[in-house]
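Morning!

This is the sequence you dropped in the shared folder:
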Amino acid sequence: MSPRTLARIAGSLYLMVAVLTIFAGLVNTSVVEQAATADSIEASATLYRLGFVGELVGAAAFLLTAMALFALLKHVSQAAAAAMVVFVAVSVAIQSLNLLNQKTALAIATSRTGSDHLATLFIEMQRDGYLIAQVYFGLWLLPLAYLIVKSGYFPKVLGVLLVIGCAGHLVDVLARFLAPEFGATISPFAMTPAAVAELTFIAWLLVKAVPRSRVAADQAQSPAW
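The structure's back. Tokens below.
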């Protein structure tokens, strides 16, 4: 990928981060800070969900921005570029964990249960935390798919399947957070491509591994491999 393409990708992702962060901040200001009550959150539940999803997508875009900048600037200093990605990854992890608090506030505001149902609330928190992490369970399949296609070790269709699997993960998460009942309905359909893709890749690794001829060719080209 050319430096100009990488620069434009990084710029587009960074702009997405800025727009979504501003939007989420405005939502938090209008819904929470001006009237931090359960009633105000419940009354603006849809807007609150949009702000939550906006910040979650923005967090993922921030990590992708750092990865694009790493690819663009690693020739300057690989150590500095790697440090940049690590710092962003840590901040995204903390931001994603903190989003669980925001989602829990919505769960409390829209719940009619009493304090004796705290166990159920914590179970819901665990489920929501897993869904937040699922964004990155999906996104890691994109660079993996790229490596599969470029390596020559595997059929390119495996890379295509993994990209479809990534899309399935993201559709599942966004649908469940934006429209929980609809999300629960389509979840099996959204996740099936991801399951097929990953299980197919696992099976290929275990049964076929990689072609000996290709490994030998790579070793010949790069003795330090």
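Headline: The mean pLDDT is 81.

More detail when I'm at my desk.
O.
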